[in-house]
Write a structure and sequence with these properties.
With 194 residues, the protein is an alpha+beta fold. It folds into 2 domains: 72 residues, Arc Repressor Mutant, subunit A; 114 residues, no CATH class. The chain contains 10 helices and 7 strands. A 4-stranded mixed β-sheet has the order 4-7-6-5. The chain has a 3-stranded antiparallel β-sheet with strand order 1-3-2.
Amino acid sequence: MFKKEIIWREILYQAMENDIFKFQQQKLAKKFNFSLSTVFNALIVPKDINAIQTSGKGFVLKSLEKMLYIWATQRKLQKDIIYKTFVNLPIQKLEANIPADIIWGSFSAYKKIKQDAPSEYSQIYIYTNNLEEIKKRFPLKKGPTNLFILKPDKYLKIYGPQTCMAQTFVDIWNNNEWYTNEFIKKIKEQYNLI
């Protein structure tokens, strides 16, 4: 993931999960050990489309919806996939066999956050650096790919055992399965984005 996406995720996380809409560029730079210019550059596009409003050294998130869509359209989920395979198990059993030291993503993350899912799903996305354990448990097999391993950025774990709702939305948005729309619709309803 690009550094600007890490900044966007933090802004969206704070807004969606903590109801915080005011930010200081210097605090964001310090939190992620980024330069102030990196934070400034991450804010250019959101500012240009009026998703944020800057003033002095701070800014306010004006449109959660616009900010989510900026990230969703710029996210390149496929480039973060480091391993994928077919596992001949029902999704619930496959999820039960995933190692503990992972971060749930996409549809599974939504289900973990909300304790429910708006639709059945047939693919699992997880973030982990422990690729050897994954390959040992789930070797390469032919069939419709249903297990996707993504490379986590070093800050992802601060959001918990699953991706935060903003990243969950963005990762689901970048999926083309039929059930994607059910998840997107539900998230939009929950955050009054419809």
